[in-house]
Amino acid sequence: MKTKVDPYAALRFKEFNIFLAVRFAMVFAWSMQFIVIEWQVYSLTKDPLSLGIIGLMEIIPAVSIALFAGHIVDQKEKRNLLVKCILGFSVVSLGLFLITLPYIEETYATKNLLIGIYALVFLGGLVRAFIGPTIFSLIALLVPKGIYPNAATWSSSTWQMAAVLGPAFAGFSIGWIGVHWSMCIIVAFSIMALLFLFRISKKPILNPKLGEPVFQSLKDGLQFVFGSKAVFGALTLDMIAVLFGGAVALLPIYAQDILNVGSEGFGILRAAPAVGAAITMLGSTRFPLHKNAGRKLLWAVFAFGVCIIVFGLSTSFWISVMALFFSGAVDGVSMIIRQTILQLKTPDHMRGRVASVNSIFVGSSNELGAFESGLTAKLMGTVTAVVFGGCMTLLTVGATALVSPTFRKLDLSKDVEGDNPH
Q1: Which of 359, 363, 344, 369 is nearest to 67 (CA)?
Q2: Distance between CA 173 and CA 180 in Å, rounded?
Q3: Concatenated DSSP letters for 69-127?
Q4: Residues of 67-101 as b/e, b for ≥16 C-beta within 10 angstroms?
């Protein structure tokens, strides 16, 4: 008799629930911080390029040391490494809290304030290079391998929920208590995450090649990613789509100058994609997306491009919100399929390195997309830049579908069934 799929399987493990609390607190703080800093920088400069520079300052360190970070993650104990990552984030948040003091703003020139903010964002990029691979690796040590796909779905759903509430709360908190005290809340959430994390025990290191030379380790990781057509195809498609569809980086301009909805409206706009993605991810616990995964991924990215074009052309606040909502919903499909591919195809001892390559392809493309959007907005105007990005996304999907029929026919059903517990 066939065993019924348990959509709550991963939630039956105590340490995994604690991990979800840690992840929620961290993502809430990180996403809130990004919004607060975006608002502060644009308020100081009124220059769309300055928003792009925020993304650039984070992507430079994140990409530069990503592969090295993956090697370190595979060599070290994961719980303690995540403790160090959260401590690093807390230091950055505390620095931003201090630099936004009214006294500091009144004393120093705008140029000096921007340099300080960009420097702290740069340090945050260093932390980010380690935190993604560490979390990806730690999940596999908290639950049995057979229900890892379910655990990853809940982890991603928690990430999205925090990404919904963080930006929305940031928008309202800027209006209620200002940028400075909003940063204080961010510091408090990072400390909360640290306290929760200490309730998770240290985990074994599963890498059989401890002490392996760095370059050999990095070579093995890259060979695995580039040797897997499914992994490489999914990462490439999503990277290019996110790169050209980075309209969210321009939301402060839409909120302040085009839609005229203030900081509260900005928070709603920023949260809308995450709301859509969260709903998709929660639904996927009951309705898996592994069947005909390649075709579904292509259609999801195509729909994402259409939503970005609609958002770019809209002058109505609620049409803009709905366009962003649906862009998040279809992006959630893309994220789930990509994570499922990584979960099923990656050996335990290589998770850190593979997650690092993933962060270069997809995670960092958000920041690079922010820079691309800021630059194109500066050159061709905000609306034209957003529409251009959406059109490039559609062209990418079409090219991928034509060039790679194997990817178009990708189906993960047998892989998922093979991972189910007996």
Answers
A1: 359
A2: 10
A3: HHHHHHHS-HHHHHHHHHHHHHHHHHHHHHHT-HHHHHHS-HHHHHHHHHHHHHHHHHH
A4: bbbbbbbbbbebbebbbebbebbbebbbbbbebbe
Which residue in 155, 134, 140 sits closest to 11, CA to CA?
A: 155
What is the tens place of the pLDDT at every residue in 311-348? 988 888 899 999 999 988 888 888 777 777 776 777 76
Q: Please give the model's pTM, rounded to 2 decimal places.
A: 0.74
Strands, E assignment, 232-276: none
Contact of 37 with 96, CB cutoff 8 Å: yes
Tokens linked to 359? 């962060």
Task: Write down the residue that tokens 């366009």 correspond to.
Answer: 323
Q: What CATH number did the domain enclosing 270 receive?
A: 1.20.1250.20
Q: Residues 310, 323: contact at Cβ < 8 Å?
A: yes
Alpha carbon distance 167, 190 (integer Å): 16
Q: What range does the domain containing 234 cover? A: 9-198+212-419
In a domain, 204, yes or no: no
Kindly give the parts of the chain with pLDDT less than 50. Answer: 1-3, 421-422
Q: Give the number of domains in the chain.
A: 1
CB atoms within 10 A of CB 11: 17
d(Cα 67, Cα 88) in Å, to the nearest integer? 19
Q: Are 243 and 393 in contact (CB under 8 A)?
A: no
Is 119 within the bounds of a domain? Answer: yes
The answer to the question of residue 72 being in a domain is: yes
In a domain, 3, yes or no: no
27 with 339: CB under 8 angstroms? no
pLDDT in tens, 58-85: 878 877 888 888 888 888 888 999 999 9
Given 3-state DSSP classes, what are the helix, strand and coil percentages for the chain, each rounded to the nearest 5? 85, 0, 15
In whole angstroms, give the CA distance from residue 67 to residue 147.
28
Dihedral angle over CA of 218, 297, 245, 172, nearest 10: -100
Side-chain-side CA neighbours of residue 45 (13 Å) = 22
CA 322 to chain centre: 21
